[in-house]
Amino acid sequence: MQLDVDIEDWPEGDWEALAARAVEAAASVEPALANPRLVASLLFTSDAEVHVLNREWRERDKPTNVLSFPMLERVDLVHLDPDEGPPEMLGDIALAHETCAREAAEKGIALDAHATHLIVHGMLHLAGHDHVDNDAEAEAMEALEIAALAKLGIADPYGDRDLKE
């Protein structure tokens, strides 16, 4: 997968390499993401920018930690021939710095670990996974996140709560 990364309003750091590792880990647990024809964009930005995107595209007038904008239906993604055809845009992800930093501090974890989790989470959304409609889907998506993060040495981000909350 080709990953286009744009970094605005985030502190110094190797966010591009972190993003590449997170995407690779997500692809290791969700094979549809390993298709070499896929292209995704990732924007590291401010709460203000994510607030605008959330209001414009999701009709939610507030910032959030991560937004995902899938451009392929899951059925099309899983049937995408990896060897023939032009690049296919999987979708876009945006991370809000201030929200991510606040959440990381509240959880007592490093910002880079939390950002990695949110990138994996966003990539799974782009692959058609969801956690909103029912508990079974949420548990399945969380299991994929936990497995991807474990490959990177990052602890289970859900270990301190009941999945049925």
TrEMBL record:
Q: Which GO terms describe its molecular function?
A: metalloendopeptidase activity; RNA endonuclease activity; zinc ion binding
Gene3D superfamilies, from UniProt? Answer: Metalloproteases ('zincins'), catalytic domain
Give the cofactor binding note. Binds 1 zinc ion.
Q: What is its EC number?
A: 3.1.-.-
- Family statement: Belongs to the endoribonuclease YbeY family.
Q: What class of enzyme is it?
A: hydrolase
Q: What is its main location?
A: cytoplasm
The record, for PANTHER family, names: ENDORIBONUCLEASE YBEY, CHLOROPLASTIC
Write down any Gene Ontology CC term: cytoplasm
Read off the InterPro entries from this record: MetalPrtase_cat_dom_sf_prd, YbeY, YbeY_CS
Q: What is this protein called?
A: Endoribonuclease YbeY
Q: What does it do?
A: Single strand-specific metallo-endoribonuclease involved in late-stage 70S ribosome quality control and in maturation of the 3' terminus of the 16S rRNA.
Which of UniProt's keywords are assigned here?
Cytoplasm, Endonuclease, Hydrolase, Metal-binding, Nuclease, Ribosome biogenesis, rRNA processing, Zinc
- Give the matching SUPFAM superfamilies: Metalloproteases ('zincins'), catalytic domain (SSF55486)
Residues annotated as binding Zn(2+): H121, H125, H131
Q: Which Pfam families match?
A: YbeY
Biological process (GO) annotations held by this record are: rRNA processing
Q: Where in the cell is it found?
A: Cytoplasm
Q: Name the cofactor(s) required for activity, per the record.
A: Zn(2+)
